[in-house]
Specification:
This protein has 829 residues and is mostly beta strands. It is built from four helices and 47 strands. The relative contact order is 0.07. This is LPS-assembly protein LptD. It comes from Bradyrhizobium yuanmingense.
Amino acid sequence: MTAVRRGLVSRLTRRTWVRANGNGLSVRRLLIAVVAAASLGGLIDAAAVAPAKAQSFTYNPLPPRAKPPKAPNDNQMLVQATEVDYDYNNSRVSAVGNVQLFYNGTSVEADRVIYDQKTKRLRAEGNIRMTDADGKITYAEILDLSDDYRDGFVDSLRVDTADQTRMAASRADRSSGNYTVFENGVYTACAPCKDDPKKPPLWQVKGARIIHDQQEKMLYFETAQIEFFGVPLAYMPYFSTPDPTVKRKSGFLMPGYISGTDRTGYGVEVPYYWAIAPDMDATITPRFLSRQGALLQGEFRQRLIDGAYQIRAYGIYQLDPGAFAGLPGDREFRGAIDTKGQFALNDKWVWGWDGVLMSDYYFFSDYRLYQYRDPLGSFLLLPTEALSQLYLTGVGNRSFFDARTMYWLSYSGNQSQVPIVYPVIDYSNVLNYPVFGGEFSYKTNFVNLSRDEAVFDPITTLANTNSLCTTASADPLARMPSQCLLRGFPGTYTRLTAEAQWRKSFTDPFGQIWTPFASLRADAIRSSVSNQPGVSNYLPVGDTEAFRLMPTVGLEYRYPFINVQPWGSTTLEPIAQIIIRPNETYAGRLPNEDAQSLVFDASNLFSVDKFSGYDRVEGGGRANVGVQSTTQFDRGGAVKVLFGQSYHLFGLNSFTVQDAINTGLNSGLDKPRSDYVASANYSPNSTYTFSVRSRMDEQTWNVQRFEAEGRANFNRWSVSVLYGNYAEQPELGYLTRREGILTTGSLKVATNWVVSGSARWDLETNKINQYVLGAGYVDDCFVLAANYVTSYSYSAGTAPPTLSHAFMFQIGLRTLANSSTTSGSTGLQ
């Protein structure tokens, strides 16, 4: 461009393409300066602090916002205006009238844009609108900025971000290329009122001045206040926070109030976060307690190229140890360390650890640390021990390997009754090529464990009331199989198991599916059982070596019948399975550590071995028969029903053998013809799901086990109900029938009002022993809710749980903070 071209362009819009080279440098600088100015709007994210972890109520989902099309970064710019002037005498470039600038996905609109090459300043005026590639929109009336983005100002700034937050300021000034000051700034995450956009939003934060230090990456708020519906409710003369570009920064975190107990006193926590380096940090949290003094907590975390680990330490010199008189906590110093880590050796192998060490087993419970920090969490998953382990795991396409050593630290104080596993190793593999035309797989398991003291559980009322299952009882009935179960034996136990399996399916011309299968399992076992009181009533004491071999052959038959209708199709499939194998050797005469749980239902009806672990193996001939029906609807939805029964054909029925813990007794399999099992699942659409599982006595059809579950989820309401009914199992210690209902639900009674609740009802005692009632106001930017909770509080040791009541209050401002407070019978938690 070698001449000045001026004049009005009538009817046509001036369109100028400019490449990022020497030609058209003035226009390029003009646009780059405008694009830089757009980043002033980006600083409004300063108020958008990362949201806190979701509480019981969450915000309404934001309406979807179309993503702007991705613009090519070709460094081409388009200048479009009614008039473009090139004034070389004054070294100015001006674009006037409906100015539009486009560059690498960023667009700028204004009434007038002027770039002065002498002063290297850009000035835009009138109806300025800047849209970046992420969808953020910045509005202003006047913009004046140096082209190196070091100094300038913007008047009447307003910004709408892609996450639907908004900020406005009467003026924004930038100086020294580092400081930006927003005058009379206002921030909110609430959408403007549709009927009256000028009406104040539900909440907004105002600040007389908001200062951004770009070098320190900090934001400083002066004379700030939070308003609700335009009414100031909270005032803060000064506070600071890292800017949105900072992922981690050293500083104090939100303090917390600790209700404590009568023994510890109430207190307060003041956490300090230390960002040591990009790959490591630490959090130091002193807790100051009114009765016991300062409890110091520290956490160190580091992420490496191939994994991460963390270490947490706790310690306190108690001011009043006598508050724990007669308990393990009656000592001056108490503390603990817990750690965990995991590292990848490659894309298939990982190794890691978990570790816990405590001065006494009541420490976490007394001070509500680790697993006891959340009282409701400890109710849902009762912590009975802390696990320390070292493991190595590998996963292939059709193979799996896992090796680990495990040590449990008992919270009950009965450490001598907890086993130490060193190690347990599992490996399984399915060959990628056929063997004799079928699928061949194999698996192995090795375990070695030890326990110092026997563990007995009572199974009768007499044993429970007279303490017949303790090692100190001298009653003639003490520790007898008729009164107690030997839950864990004292001594050492080593077992190596290897099993190979083969199966192949054939389909004949009639559509019948025949699947022959065969397996061979071998167990090498060595046990050394200590001769403690009562143990000899269950297991042979002393050293025992055993080799157990279980060959199995069988055939599975299926004959699916398919009926196709205009509304869908139904598949009716009779299933029969016959298994031939010898008796279980050493049945009931060897320790059983990993096969103590047995639930017979439709899910394991056609399992070749129905025991849950390797320490027991099913023997004897058996036939499993059933019929399965599957219906698929063309408009969506499906129904699946299974009904069947198992038959003991010959040999020793393993489920009738009374071992140390009576595994198999009262299971429904401990008779020639098993109980009937059935299941039904119905999913008409994505809204509803129903399922039923049951086991009925094979003679009387009395219900031995029944579970029914239903779920529904709509836009305005959701509900789930689980009903369970379980017959007594006296051989296992369940002397009465158990029956109950667990239900949860929520209802949106109005656009922004939600009520929710859940309850657990013990039908046998006709008592609701846990429930939650809640109500709250919820919209896209604000949550205000309250819950009333009754639950059981657990502590370490053998003390029974106690029923507690609590009120939980929650308030949340989207992008700023969520906070909740719980008050109960023992104060705030």
